[in-house]
Amino acid sequence: MTDFAFLHFGGAGTVDHATGPRLTLRVPAKQTEPPRYGRSAMGYGSRIPSSWMVQLHGRWRRVYVACWGNAGTAYVGKAGAWLCTVDIDTA
Q1: Is the model's pLDDT at 17 over the cut of 90?
Q2: Distance CA 17, CA 76 (A)
Q3: 1/48 Cα distance (integer angstroms)
Q4: What pTM did the predictor assign?
């Protein structure tokens, strides 16, 4: 069974009326051993590494999570300069 992820590019601040507000891609995803770096004692932060990786442009990229409350946002990219947000589909 293969896992997939949906990568969401763009958003409300980057609406292009010719192409729509977002571009969503379905890409392969895999779960790996979670890295030991980047975790704080409290569990909050802007770049918490997850155990998921997605394949983007032929390379496997780590999925990070920004979490400052009860919910987090999964993304690929740098803290403060996200390339895209990520939704993992394991069904």
Answers
A1: no
A2: 25
A3: 27
A4: 0.79
